Amino acid sequence: MRMVLRFFSTNRFTGILSGTVVTSVVQSSSVTTVMIIGFINAGLLTLPQSIGIIFGANIGTTITAQLVAFKIGTIIMPSIILGLGLSFFKNEKMKQLGETILGIGLLFFGMEIMGTELKKLAAHPTFVSAFRMFECAPGADGTIPFGSLFGAIGIGMVATMIVQSSSACIGIVIALSASGVMDLNTAVGILLGTNIGTTVTAQLAALTANRVARQAALAHTLFNTIGVLIAVVSFLIPWGGEPAFFHLIRTISGNGSLQRQIANAHTIFNIATTLLLVPFISVLAKICELLIPLKADIVKYVKLEPHLLNTPSIALSQTAAELRKMLKRAWKMADIALNIYARNDERNQMRVKTLPQRENEIDARQNDIANYLTALMLKPLTPRESRQIPILLHCSNDAEKIGDYAMELSGLMERIRSEEIRFSESAEKELDELHGKLKILAENAVDLLKDNHVQDPQTATAAHVEMRNLLETVELAHMNRLYSGKCIIKNGVLFMELMEKIRKIERHIFNITERAGNFYGKLPDID
User: Fold this and answer.
1) How much is the pLDDT for 39?
2) Which end of the chain is more exposed for a tag (fewer CB within 10 A), N or C?
3) What pTM did the predictor assign?
């Protein structure tokens, strides 16, 4: 998914290709569009990029109808048996391959059963008369009755809105046509309705998302609706004594069965609509921006996007990004607290007042990460992903602890400032040096949480060894000052307390450094 995401961003044509490939694999345009909404809400995709992928998703979803149209009854049971056998393998890849084959076998087994039962309904007069109400067969003049056509479109639209799967509805249409209840014209009418009805899933997913995601959902609806209108207009163009669209389908399908003609109609409709509208992607984006304008220049993105839970690898990367932001804020608190002694200018004084609010935000962020990862645990995960979750949970706890110790450090520094306590010149230099080293460690930890960051964790570990050696050197020098009487006891105790707070913050930063290295580089896959 990371590779596909990078592929999205190049141009509209790679976006269409990506949408086609992803939807062909997952066998659902609804799943793809919901993922797109999640990507946009998390700031991973722009509106123009998403529109290209949505175009591709409409093409990819036609693969299901093409598969259903094949007479594959002979391979149903072998697929189920093979898939079931492979699913018992310990090797994760073989197990996933087996589950995929088993799923496909069960899908077509279900379609076979449904087709058999629908053939029985074909003999029922009431059932047949209900479909005849919206029969779209051309009249003597070769034109389709538009009342019946829009009725068929309405049936397809409502049915897809209810089941939230155009693939399922098209499968039912093909099964009905095989039982002799439905002709090609009526099937195409219902098929057009399913293309509009399937957009409701994206609309529902976008209800709680940002405005850019809602614009993408609107683009999906507009694209499919415009495509249906173009198809309806093509029905007015005569060719070979029938509407041009149907003549084209019969010509391409040759001696193919009615099921094959319906599947071809679905594919041709979506490909033709995409080719016609692809030059207008930017125009469509502008229309969506006008209809759903942004209320502010800044778009609020949600890193821990709920819809991304269905793609665990990306959900984990998003959690790492949120953790990185949390660590930056926690370190900023510690930096502000340390500045109270030597660099407490007016700007820093204003920042000190925000420390309680910053700590509350860090606590809330930790709670959000914990809830998000808990929800992710309920999803199907690879062994590697399962072992990455505790790493992120521990890192969020460490970042939260840094915020806690920053508050304690702030209280200590405020006491030193209010009592006008001054350390010796050598102690001030040591404190300043520790502050600088701690800043480098925090920056290294943030960098290591970046996705696929190339920095060697050993470099960061070496910096921690330096920091700990420096702490020991500073504490030893301080004890010598106390023993020699060069340091006031009260000041000496406060300085030792400062060292202890700094040591605790350093320890939690080091924990994050170690775990960040494990998260990206040191977890071998287990079969």
Assistant:
1) 84
2) C
3) 0.73
